[in-house]
Amino acid sequence: MDTRTYIFLAASLLLLASSGPSEACSCFSAHPQTAYCNADVVIKARFVGANLNNSTSGQFGWTQYEIKMSKIFKGSDHITDLQFLYTPSEDSLCGYTHHSTNKSEEYVIIGHMSGGKVQISSCGFIRPWAGLSASQKRGIMQIYKDGCNCTIVPCIAMPCSISRDTECLWTDRFTSRSWKAYQTQHYACLPQGSGTCTWQSMKPRANSSIFRSTAAL
Ligand SMILES: *[C@@H]1O[C@H](CO)[C@@H](O)[C@H](O)[C@H]1NC(C)=O
Ligand SMILES: *[C@@H]1O[C@H](CO)[C@@H](O)[C@H](O)[C@H]1NC(C)=O
Ligand SMILES: *[C@@H]1O[C@H](CO)[C@@H](O)[C@H](O)[C@H]1NC(C)=O
Ligand SMILES: *[C@@H]1O[C@H](CO)[C@@H](O)[C@H](O)[C@H]1NC(C)=O
Ligand SMILES: *[C@@H]1O[C@H](CO)[C@@H](O)[C@H](O)[C@H]1NC(C)=O
Description:
Layout: H1 3-19, H2 32-38, E1 41-53, E2 62-74, E3 84-88, E4 106-114, E5 117-119, E6 126-128, H3 134-143, E7 151-154, E8 167-170, H4 172-176, H5 182-186, E9 187-191, E10 197-201
InterPro entries: Netrin_domain, TIMP, TIMP-like_OB-fold, TIMP_C
Keywords: Disulfide bond, Glycoprotein, Growth factor, Metal-binding, Metalloenzyme inhibitor, Metalloprotease inhibitor, Phosphoprotein, Protease inhibitor, Secreted, Signal, Zinc
Main location: secreted
């Protein structure tokens, strides 16, 4: 990467690092729809290599992952030949570490553009494609994009509520004690006409919206 890019990335990391309460990377779990909507780049790819670019004085180290991309779900034309992803080499700067050595395993990777490079982090959504639910795959392929004008509001502590009717309250943590339950696995927050948004099932042939976004807990 050129020097300007590096400085830009380093500066954004400094901001990230200094805004945190401690040395540790802390970030909040996002619903896959939120991750999709906030991302610049959503692709399916295999990880085929990694190169560490060690930190030098005054600069952060970076890991460059080499990928083989098979699908672009979201992103500009300029990523059609995307070959490398970048992440801080420090865990404390939210660097992503790829643990699997299986080069034929496909991943959904959500990243951000920074200075012409695609950046990934441990806070992002990077999962084996095979591990997604059928609904999440449909979400990424076609449904989540329709909900990008809606906002998914995580319920972090009771009581929680939403303040606008374009919001859906994400309550998985209270219904299952994890952020990986029903709304995460099977639901998208979608416009429902008349400017409101509601949770809707992405299961094929089901139309129920059992989690009304207007209901406050
Ligand atoms: C590491 O990054 C610096 C700054 O961008 C670059 O000049 C250098 O070529 C990189 N080294 C490797 C081994 O990629
Ligand atoms: C980076 O540091 C590691 C461990 O200190 C070393 O094994 C590796 O060769 C270094 N890589 C480069 C490109 O200098
Ligand atoms: C690697 O991943 C592929 C595709 O998911 C799978 O079929 C294969 O069994 C995996 N190999 C190993 C050694 O886990
Ligand atoms: C989101 O809102 C903008 C501006 O109100 C509108 O132009 C756009 O079509 C909306 N997108 C979707 C997917 O509804
Ligand atoms: C789903 O909704 C459509 C129209 O909104 C309706 O025609 C269809 O019967 C519904 N399907 C089920 C399984 O309820």
